[in-house]
């Protein structure tokens, strides 16, 4: 079999503000690959099917010497993210051609990979679309489930505020809060997202671009739990509208990722005045503790159609740069992912 | 017996920035009192002996319509704070002349008080100076003990940073952290305070006015526990120098109390990047839980001379305004208090 083009998405330059497709993230078709002869060295050859595009990837687009919680993308090399691939060839004893794997997958059409964690074989017991494993059943869904159960200490009747409430994480948080009997306020940046938050059960859903967040929180609050996906001014408003002993769960601060100066918070004295607790968390360290309970709880509800979730799927690896930018600007309409190839 | 002058300290105006003696806090001698005939209405008449001056009192110097965790001082009336008085006359069944009481005491030489909590009779089983009940054995000492035990989750060998480490709270936190086998970094605003932090056992003690806080923390950290008494830039530096899973205990933010604009914090995204937990707390809600353990632990150590603490005592009720200002500016040299009168 002759060599075929292996399209790749390269990290070409570190952005200061928003990442621009073609400048910071570049699609490249200069490499080729022979699928039948490429050496596996004990690993596997996969065809990439689905790639997740997530807000935190912005943090990896930086110079390698700057420390952070995720490694910087290697300059000039393919970026990577959570994804799903189908195995074409394997030299690994537990994985055979036709199996599916998930983990951090390079943004290229075909990859030879070593099978080391977090890369692992993935099953699909409920026969759901593979893409669900990147959204409601994957990292975002698990993030919502784990953070809520670990930190919310939710009591029936409490008031919960969820920012980015139409996002992959936030929309499940809204549904978990409703299951726990809470009143839920959700904010997002478009009327379409507001509608989706209401479908998810939010009692109050508003567009922060046209409605003042603090005014809504003062009217509908005080808030007992704040699930923070955005940081910045919204976080400040939540501090102002917090009830005594409120719990803040900080899952991300997307409003700050593209602001090189940093976004100021002014209301931190409320933390002691109101005896607040604020917990930041990342997916990775919590995952082992909650894995079993998640698997027992959420996939059956999803299979039964009892959890609302939305995918925003773009076609083709060349779209990655544009999707990354759209997500940072809040232009996505559901869990953002790129469909790279069909299974056959 | 004729009427005698009853000197009082009045709240005369709400300051925007630093409170000025004579303008916002005014000493007044226009009232008189007859100690033998003033009606008690079932309460007690006390002579004020000692008054505690604390940083949080700044927050009570505000217009009454602004909500906060402590009530505003009533305009034109005497301010009040924690204090000790000796009972001159009593119509209360459990309290007799010669007993001592503690609680929120009006800033006047003599007061007729109802005996309702937090006012209560106080014993002195270790025969220590009464003033200790306002410092190391009182609210500041209990604040340090309760906050540390409730939130620090300290492990031997961890690195602890204490701001305002020479203060009434901070100096005990340093000693508790050392008892738990931690490495302790303390900051304060004078060379004399730096020396006192070293006497308390701080491994590293520095003057934040002459040494860059972030540089010290980066060199001696990362920090696992931050005890925050000051907020503002110091809090921001601590976020920057925090270890993963660090615990922040927010006891006060004195650097912000006199800044009407508010003090910006820029490093809040570190909260999720480093999985930090931040707990703010107030004395009152924690007190019932820890009262017994405090009484069993700290007074015996103080009586045995095993706890270092410092008082900064000013003579006379007319000094209150100046002491309040000095404390906000960090000019005190120990637990600030005003000695109003001797017992006899």
From TrEMBL, chains A, B:
Organism: Pholiota conissans
SMART domains, per the entry: PKS_ER
Domain Enoyl reductase (ER), chain residue ranges per copy: 28-338
InterPro entries assigned: ADH-like_C, ADH_N_2, ER, GroES-like_sf, MDR_fam, NAD(P)-bd_dom_sf
Protein name: NAD(P)-binding protein
GO molecular function, one term: oxidoreductase activity, acting on the CH-CH group of donors, NAD or NADP as acceptor
Keywords tagged on the record: Oxidoreductase
Gene3D superfamilies documented for this protein: Medium-chain alcohol dehydrogenases, catalytic domain, NAD(P)-binding Rossmann-like Domain
Keyword Oxidoreductase: yes
UniProt xrefs under Pfam families: ADH_N_2 (PF16884), ADH_zinc_N (PF00107)
PANTHER family: PROSTAGLANDIN REDUCTASE, PROSTAGLANDIN REDUCTASE 1
